[in-house]
Amino acid sequence: MKAIQIDRYGGPEVLEVKDLLLAPPGPGEVRVRNRAIGVNFIDIYHRTGAYPVAGLPFTPGKEGAGEVVALGPGVSGFAPGDRVAYVEAPGAYAEEHNVPAQVLLRLPDTIDYQTAAAMMLKGLTAQYLLRRTYRVEPGQTVLVHAAAGGVGLILAQWAKHLGATVIGTVGSPDKVATARANGCDHVVLYREEPFPARVMDLTRGQGCHVVYDGIGQATFPGSLDCLRPFGSFVSFGSASGPIAPFDIALLAAKGSLFATFPLLPTHIADRDTYLGMARELFGAVEAGAVEITVHDRLALSEAAEAHRRMEARETMGATILLP
Questions:
Q1: Pair 311, 44: CB distance under 8 Å
Q2: Per-position DSSP letters for 273-307, written without gaps between them
Q3: CA 294 to chain centre
Q4: Which of 113, 128, 190, 272 has the smallest number of CB atoms closer than 10 Å to its CB?
Q5: CA angle 200, 204, 208 (to 5 degrees)
Q6: Which residues, listed in sequence order, are joined to residue 34 by a DSSP beta bridge?
Q7: For residues 66 and 32, what is the distance between their CA atoms, to the nearest angstrom?
Q8: % of the chain at pLDDT higher than 70
Q9: Distance between CA atoms of 161 and 283, rounded to whole angstroms?
Q10: Does the pLDDT value for residue 160 go beyond 90?
Q11: Contacts of 245 (CB under 8 A, 6+ apart)
Q12: Helices assigned H by DSSP within 24-112
C-alpha cells in the first residue's frame, strides 16, 4: 500500500511516499481503508521533532475516515464494509490503517468521509474546549484566537450557537470575512493592533469569560489581559511556538485567573465519554449548528505541499488528503 513515511525530522520535504507492507490487524485493531485523511498542526510538530515520536521511521497523521476491511482478534461491534471515522490513531497518512477499536466510531449516513476526516480531531477538540474545559453559557463573551483556522472556525460557530458573543483574532486581512461568516461578532487583526486593548474596548472594559488560544508564544501573555477577573485561559496549541515558563503568581496579578492546557487523548481515554463527545459533535454538524469547512483537498502524495501551506498560514478551515 502507499503511505507517507518520515525517516528523519525536518521540513515538508521529509514527507516521502513509500510502498509499505501493512500487517494484519492485531488484537483489538480494525483495518480501515482510508477515503479521506485529516491534516493537523500536530502532524507538523511530529514531523519537525517539536513533539518527538516513539521512533523513526514513522507514518504521521492521527485522524481519518473510510470503510472497515478486516477485524483483529477480540474485536466486536464492527463489520467489514462499515463506514467509520477515527482520531488519535497514529499512522493515518496511508491508504489503509490498522486502528485501535477503542478510537473507532461508526459514521452517521448524513456525514460524508471528507467531512468526517476534517472534523474528528478539530471538532472533538472544540467539543471538549466548549463543553468540558470551560462550559460556555448564553450571554458570555469568548475570545477565539486563529478564528479562521481549522479549530477556530468550529469553535466560533459552536460558541455562537451556544449564545456567546464571540471575538475572533486572525493573522491577515483576507481571513476577516471568513471569521465573520463563521460566528465571530468582532474580528481583530492580532498582528496589526494590540489585541488586548481592542478586546477590552469591545467588552467595555469587562474582559472575556474565556480565551481559547491555539497560537501560543505570539499571543501570550496578551491573552491574560483579555480576561475578566476569575476568567479562564485555555491553551490548546502552540502554532507560533511554545509558551515560555512563567511565574504562576502572574495569574493572581492579572485577576485571579484560571489557566489550563487540556489534551484530547485524556478526554477520550474513557470509551463512554468518547462516544458521548462524538454524539454531541455529530449532532451539532447534522443540525447545521456547525459547518465543517474543507479548504484544501490534496492527494496523499501531496502531503508535503499540505504541510507547506499550513505552515505558511495559507489555509483556512481544514485540509484533507485523499488516498
A1: yes
A2: HHHHHHHHHHHHHHTTSS---EEEEEEGGGHHHHH
A3: 13
A4: 272
A5: 50
A6: 66
A7: 6
A8: 100
A9: 13
A10: yes
A11: none
A12: 41-48
Q: In sequence order, what DSSP letters do the residues of 174-187 get, joined into one string?
A: GGHHHHHHTT-SEE
What is the β-pairing status of strands 258-260 and 29-39? Answer: unpaired
What does the pLDDT average to over 57-66? 98
SS3 content of the chain, % helix, strand, coil (to 5): 35, 30, 40
Residue 33's DSSP bridge partners are 67, 96
Digit-coded pLDDT (tens) for 14-44: 999 999 999 999 999 999 999 999 999 999 9
pLDDT for the residue 315: 85
**pLDDT at residue 313, rounded to an integer:** 84
Residue 309 CA to residue 122 CA, distance in Å, equals 18
Contact 160, 183 (CB under 8 A): yes
Rounded mean pLDDT of the chain? 97
* Nearest of 32, 48, 163 to residue 101 by alpha carbon: 32
Residues 47 and 60 sit within 8 Å (Cβ to Cβ): yes
Give residue for cell 511556538. 241
CA dihedral of residues 78, 82, 83, 87 (deg, nearest 10): 30
Residue type, 69: V
Fill in the DSSP letter of residue 85: E
Cβ atoms 159, 142 nearer than 8 A: yes
Give the three cell numbers for residue 254.
492579572
